[in-house]
Automatic annotation (TrEMBL), chains A, B:
NCBIfam families on file: PRK06836.1
Top enzyme class: transferase
Any one GO MF annotation of this record: transaminase activity
Name by which UniProt lists this protein: Pyridoxal phosphate-dependent aminotransferase
Entry EC number(s): 2.6.1.-
Length: 395, 395
């Protein structure tokens, strides 16, 4: 009796989540220290101490009626939105103000708000494989059609020729995610410039507006000083979806924002629509205490050296065992080539060693598996002998 | 370039919100103390001190990785769901366990989750006027059709004959909201039993499942010892949507839950669908800190005597001025008859005295206006001379 759309969704439900729940089951049997759960992007680095301080300060300073009340605008507290805008301006030389910022229930909430605001049934949304599988669900929520660009498994940069060919008059949005989940790849400035030029030309060709949606939960997680270009500076019709889930280790608190710049087509209308969509999708407003927390922590960063040590150890460890993998420049994922064509078979084999990894099919890229290395260093170190045993099966 | 559905939504955007934003504008000009803003159900009673204590304790006691992390299930922390279930069982003699509870981003999030889980395009959802206007938007989100039962302006109890006549083979859900927004009326046990009997008979007649969705943000706000029946006990296919927005004065924090009982048709599937809907709509999980807070505050209640004083003062004050109004038994709203047929005209007249009230059209009940009396007592007292001036216009 559940809806037909949901029947399909439940049937194809997230393998990531299933794996994560399996991890908890195994931890119950074998003890958490004997399970190597690389399934979910749930940060193991605690929120910085300033988050705790910020919450304590807010409890002392703020009137609880304001602190826990509805915000005047569904877009969030004006002071928080101003602070976010100014912080972005200082970092990226942009020119945003409060009106350009809509506080959201994480990036997932923000993506739903913007897709609800934009999509008519049958509109196309382009994503570059491998991509976060939820993009398909979010697009489907508003009867859009997800159009996939096949992966370049050499570099995991977007295939721009195929991209250009697949843009149609129905293309309403293009989602990019850099640093990327699941590959850790960062799109270079050159790539972004080429993408922007293609989209500009296609907008002219079709007389349409094509929005670039930049999903940026991993922006702050970039290693070795690599630059992550700020996309509004390269393409006018850009909307940014940000989350503090990873940068402040607050994934459960559901706090992020959308940036809709004045330069975007129909900016005023789109901002108004995002406001209404926030309300009618049932978010109403981003959680208020956390809005005030992030305002106090705008200059705070998660301890990236922690993830970097994990990255180096796991990457080199797996390479030494003969696994093939591109070295990630950002985020906290390794995207490893499965030693057998059917990577689900490989995931099943890994589970025998209590290693939990996610099949690439979940990211529209079969033949690969994703490892989330936002785990403890001990998990990484202790998993390597298990990976060695696993590797032996494929020698 | 925004979606056609959103064009309509923005055009018909919430009059309540517009009024609330107008209130803030007027407060900026005349000073907050000279504006009588009865527009929004934003509680003026601060969250109980135990909420503050709970947050402080959680910061000291809990591992931040757990406290702010993704929950194992999208339905929320198992311990929180167990505690909510046990608390309901103790209060209402029900038999729920953790699996029956899905923690949600407020009641608005919960209603979206359950409607997404249930509705196929064209399915009908029945609501009794006057009703919270957002039900129409939530239904429309999933291409359902809202079917309205006209108001009984004598008692504001549901018109059961019209209800019976309007149930069809396409009726998928019926939303009730008791204590009611905007009338403050509580549906009696007798009414509920009659409704249940009608729905049972119609399910048999059509061979369908018709879900009763009980939207209960005002459950704890009942005056004079009036009983608010717990609906799962009267009708098997009941789903409850609850929110702590009013009971703990946490509307901005977006925390509530759904109850899907084992007795509901296709319960297992519906619980699974709600889980997936929570994820793909972008909620992912209810905010984690607040989940833990409500667990610690399950026996806490807002100070209802505060609202009761407001209720008595405003109700009697308006009656003495000649306004017509049913005395509310719950919630924090008065639904007052407009002295002129076009209640928008009356709202405009009220605004001249800095009195902000919401037209009944927003609740599918023109000719009436809603006053939210979750304001300070001073606002009530000081507004009465202004209402007296307003009343004179209609003598």
């Amino acid at each position: 009796m559940i809806s037909k759309k949901m029947e399909n969704m439940v049937a194809n439900s997230s393998a990531i989540r299933a794996m994560f729940e399996e991890g908890n089951r195994l931890a119950g049997i074998y003890g958490a220290e004997n399970v190597y759960d690389f399934s979910l992007g749930n940060p193991n680095v605690p929120a910085p101490e300033t988050v705790k301080d910020a919450i304590r300060e807010l409890l002392n300073e703020e009137d609880p009626v304001v602190l826990h009340g509805y915000t005047n605008s569904n877009a969030g507290y004006e002071d928080v939105r101003t602070a976010v805008a100014e912080s972005l301006n200082a970092k990226f030389g942009t020119d945003f103000s409060a009106k350009n910022i809509t506080m959201t229930v994480g990036a997932a909430g923000g993506l739903n708000v913007i897709l609800k605001s934009l999509l008519n049934p049958g509109d196309e949304v382009i994503a570059f494989a491998p991509y976060f599988g939820e993009y398909r669900s979010y697009t489907n929520n508003y009867d859009g059609v997800l159009v996939e660009i096949s992966p370049d498994t050499e570099t995991f940069q977007p295939k721009l020729d195929e991209f250009e060919a697949k843009i149609t008059a129905k293309t309403k949005a293009v989602i990019v995610n850099t640093p990327n989940n699941p590959t850790g790849v960062v799109y270079s400035e050159e790539t972004i410039k080429k993408m922007a030029a293609i989209m500009e030309a296609k907008q002219k060709e079709f007389g349409t507006d094509i929005y670039l949606i930049s999903d940026e939960p991993y922006r702050e997680l970039a290693y070795d000083g690599v630059e992550v270009p700020y996309l509004t500076k390269y393409y006018a019709n850009t909307v940014v979806g940000y989350s503090y889930s990873k940068s402040l280790s607050l994934p459960g608190e559901r706090i992020g924002y959308l940036v809709i710049p004045n330069e975007a087509a129909d900016s005023e209308k789109l901002i108004g629509a995002a406001n209404v969509a926030t309300r009618i999708l049932g978010f109403v407003n981003a959680p208020t205490l956390q809005q005030k927390v992030v305002k106090k922590c705008l200059n705070e960063k998660t301890d990236i050296s922690y993830y970097n040590r994990n990255r180096e150890t796991l990457y080199h460890g797996l390479k030494e065992l003969g696994f093939e993998c591109i070295k990630p420049e950002g985020a906290f994922y390794l995207f490893v080539k499965s030693p057998v064509a059917d990577e689900k078979e490989f995931c099943a084999a890994a589970k025998k060693y209590n290693i939990l990894i996610v099949p690439g099919t979940s990211f529209a890229c079969p033949g690969y598996v994703r490892l989330a290395y936002c785990v403890s260093y001990e998990t990484i170190v202790n998993s390597l002998p298990k990976f060695a045993e696993l590797a032996k099966e494929y020698k």
